[in-house]
Amino acid sequence: MPDRWIEVHYPELKITLTARLWVEMNPALCELFWNSLPIESHQSHTMSTGQGMYMPHRVVKLVKTNTMLITECPVGTIHFSTVDYKSIGCYYGKVTEPLPVSPVARIRE
Q1: What is the pTM (predicted TM-score) of this model?
Q2: How many degrees, rounded to 5, is the angle at CA 17 between CA 64 and CA 3?
C-alpha cells in the first residue's frame, strides 16, 4: 500500500504540518483515522505532561492497537484515542508523564 499523508492546518498561524500515517505501527487504527477525516476541533496545550498538544474528537470505536509510552514516542508523533480520552495528540518536545498512547502518524521534519 502506498504511503498516506495528512495535513494539519493552523489557519490563524498560517502553518500547515504534513504527517505520514504510521500504518506499520497501527494498521486498523490508521484506517479508522483516515476514514474519519477531515476532523475539525479546538486544540489545547497539555497542562501537566510537558510539551504536547491535544484536541478532542467524536470518533468512538474499539480498535485493537499497539501502544507506546508518550515518554518514548519520537517527537512529532501523532496519537489517536477512540475510547478513553477521545483525542488526537501531538508531542513536540520533552514529556514527563509515561501514559500509553496509540500512534497513528509522524510529522515530517
Answers
A1: 0.91
A2: 50
Cell of 73: 514516542
pLDDT of residue 34: 97
Length of the chain as a residue count: 109
Q: What is the pLDDT of residues 3-22, one digit of tens each?
A: 999 999 988 889 999 999 99
Instruction: Give the bridge partners for 20, in sequence order.
Output: 5, 106
Per DSSP, the three-state class of 70 is helix
Beta strands in 4-102 (DSSP E): 5-10, 15-21, 44-45, 50-56, 68-69, 77-80, 87-95, 100-101
Sign of CA dihedral 31, 55, 46, 20: positive
